[in-house]
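Lab notebook: predicted structure, single chain.

Context: the supervisor wants predicted structures on file for every construct in the current expression panel, including those that have not yet been purified. This is the next one on the list. No modifications to the sequence; it matches the entry in the shared construct table.
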Amino acid sequence: MPSQIVMLAGEPEYRSHLTMRPIASLMERELGARVRYHTPSSIPDEPDFAESSFGDLSDLEDAELLIIYTRFRRLPDDEMKALESFLERGGAVVGLRTSTHAFRFAPEEPWADWNLGFGRDVLGSPWISHHGHDSSTEVTLRADAPVEFVRGLPDQFHVRSWLYHTELQPWCRPILDGAPVDPQCPPTPGPVAWYGEPDNRRRFYTSLGHAEDLQQEPVRRLLCNAVGWAVGIS
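Prediction complete. Output recorded below exactly as produced.
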């Protein structure tokens, strides 16, 4: 039976609701997976952070993996409960770029802890800041990166994404490092991809994900490798 994957994609900065469709198709072709693709009912977030919906998320009940690339979502209770149940039963998660700040609930709302907690506790780092929109990033493979993640990748490549600052949890195992190019603040090199298995739950995150990144073969290969690992077919 094909691996069952749910993908939540949608935010205004990088248009992930559009750019992730070819990635979903690639995973279906290369991994033989079934990807159920969800986009939000409303794409804008700032400044109003209006509620949006990904629709019926009952397909998370039998999914092995959640792939998430969203930003500042406020979802209905039933969708948040579906996500909570998926995480509680130990489903694997692969996150891209703005998913460290995937949610933006008001302080009085019951899901407000997810604003920082999802990035920190599920993906391994909260959102902090970045090196400026006019900068880019030189990416280097770590010498100790497990081969299942970096198979087919060059030792070094350049991406359009501006480098994020990170604050990794103890369980995170970096596999790719980034150095900022033409940063708009003091440069702080740091990881751009890592994995881990906190409580035997597979997690992978990369801050790569600019629309131009997703057209590059090394980034596409990285994502396929990571998803293969997450569902146990690497």
